[in-house]
Amino acid sequence: MMSEENFTLKNFVPRYSFYPLYSAWPKEIMTESKSLIKTTYYQEMESAKDILIYIHIPYCQELCNFCGLNVKITKSKDEINSFVDHLIKEIKNSPRCSNVKGVSIGGGTPNFLPAKELERLIVFLHQHFNLSSEAHLQIEIDPRYITLDQLNIFQKFNFKNLIVGLIDFNSDVLALSNRHQGPNQAAGLELILNQNYFSVTAEIIAGLAMQSKESIKFTLDYCLNSGVNSFNIYPLFIAPWNPNSKIHIQITQNNKSANFSDNRFELFKFACDYLKSHHITSVGPGHFATPDHWWNDKLQKEDLCYCISGVFPFIVDHMLSFGPSAISSSSSIVCANEKVTDRYLSLIQKKEDCHSSFFVKSKSQIAFQELINQLFAKSQTKIPSEILENPSFLINKKIIVELELAKIEDQSIKMTSLGREYFGHLLHLLDPKI
Ligand SMILES: C[S@@+](CC[C@H](N)C(=O)[O-])C[C@H]1O[C@@H](n2cnc3c(N)ncnc32)[C@H](O)[C@@H]1O
Ligand code: SF4
Question: How far is residue 120's CA from residue 85's CA, in Å, rounded to a whole number?
């Protein structure tokens, strides 16, 4: 638990991925009354409103040595093609939800699937979930491998947002990140922007080896001048399962004399401040949009939501996710799929359950999840009594107010613009810890 003494905004937690954190899930729940949990999960999903579907495509051609995501490196086109068959089998065996408001396809690298496989998947999603023409569709793209055929499919199915891994435009930074191979990312970005159809979010990392304020400034200017209209800025996360990512810290430390900042949060803050100084508005932790971007409009209408898969133009009550490691969340249950792609594929092949663990939320955790969903979108929201009475909330209330993360009056809470930027911190302070 963070105490008042050691809490400063300098050590902020910029991403609050999902609730409760995976590390807090008890392991016993995996065996204990699994069928009852599953029945409840299906019932809650089938009656849910405002569902977001997330599809995880784990494949990449080469491993970027900073990567903190669940990926499988392969060059086997056969495996990639049969992956869609497995996904379709998993989806066919899932709860039959009818209120799907959006679909987010992420990875790994979704555009590692050939255009015809992407189309097969999207057509199936449309049919199975009876998606409306209003449904919000978005996908993550590696610009080095994007093709016109793939872009035509996204346009045909009315994808609204393409989230493009641009990382940095400095060739030394990219080379040290093992991201120099393949066609040039600038050409991929140009191809996407030339379609003049999608809103384009640039994903930028702050804190990579050889990165400097100058290189970040160059990258942001490049994006802004090209027509990118939104940004996801991430401070480098050192993933324990990817030992290569440590080289970024080591190289940066060895290069102190060469004027490279050794502080990824400092670079993160620099990137955020640079965007704000160019009138790019902050809509959430590390998320920025040009003033005319639809994120601003949705924010005004109190319809912008922030969840594990990014920013969405509706409040995501439930998430139904597919593919290896995908995490789903119903009203009272969170569940995760098998993480290792080969094992996931073999479970589907054997017609076995591919969920590897379940977590049943307590009453206060359910209330807290509801608060998270509302807080980001609504200008003012009620604090559930389970949280109001919680001792950790009573201690942290003072810190929240003093740091101007939120205004708390009686039973309601209103996030300040600072709180919106430091969303992760605000949530860590509010978390009832039960
Ligand atoms: C699924 S990828 C986007 C599509 C594609 N795989 C690519 O990299 O271009 C999501 C993004 O997460 C970010 N990311 C990955 N690993 C990270 C890490 N360890 N720390 C911070 N951001 C990371 C990168 O910006 C990456 O582009
Ligand atoms: S950053 Fe993107 S392309 Fe690189 S390994 Fe991770 S998911 Fe794959």
Answer: 9
430 CA → ligand 1 middle, Å: 28
Q: Which residue has the tokens 């799929």?
A: 337
Q: Which of 61, 63, 67, 74 to mutate to test the pocket of ligand 2 (most atoms within 8 A of CB)?
A: 67
Model pLDDT for residues 191-219, shown as the tens digit of each residue: 999 999 999 999 999 989 889 899 999 99
Closest C-alpha residue for ligand 2 atom 2: 108
- For β-strands 199-206 and 161-167, DSSP reports them as parallel
Taken in order of first residue, the domains within the chain and their CATH numbers are 21-360 (3.80.30.20), 363-430 (1.10.10.920)
CA–CA gap between residue 431 and residue 434 (Å, rounded): 8
Nearest alpha carbon to residue 211 among 163, 165, 164, 271 = 271
Asked if omega into 110 is within 30° of 0 (cis), the reply is no
Reported as a pLDDT band with limits 50, 70 and 90, residue 9 is low
Distance 326 CA to ligand 2 centre (A): 16
Beta bridge partners of 60: 73
At 251, is the secondary structure helix, strand, or coil? helix
Measure the CA–CA gap between 37 and 355, rounded to whole angstroms.
12
| CA 163 to ligand 1 centroid distance, Å | 10
Could you tell me the two tokens for 427?
């949530």
Half-sphere exposure (CA, 13 Å, Cβ side) for 343? 10
With a pLDDT cut of 90, the percent of the chain lying above it is 60
Residue 232 dihedral angles phi and psi, to the nearest 5°: -115, 115
Q: What is the pTM of this model?
A: 0.93
Q: What is the DSSP letter of 19?
A: S
Q: Give the Å distance between the CA of 37 and the centre of ligand 1.
A: 33
Q: Residue 356: name the closest of 333, 336, 342 by CA.
A: 336
Query: In this structure, what token pair is assigned to residue 418?
Result: 């600072």
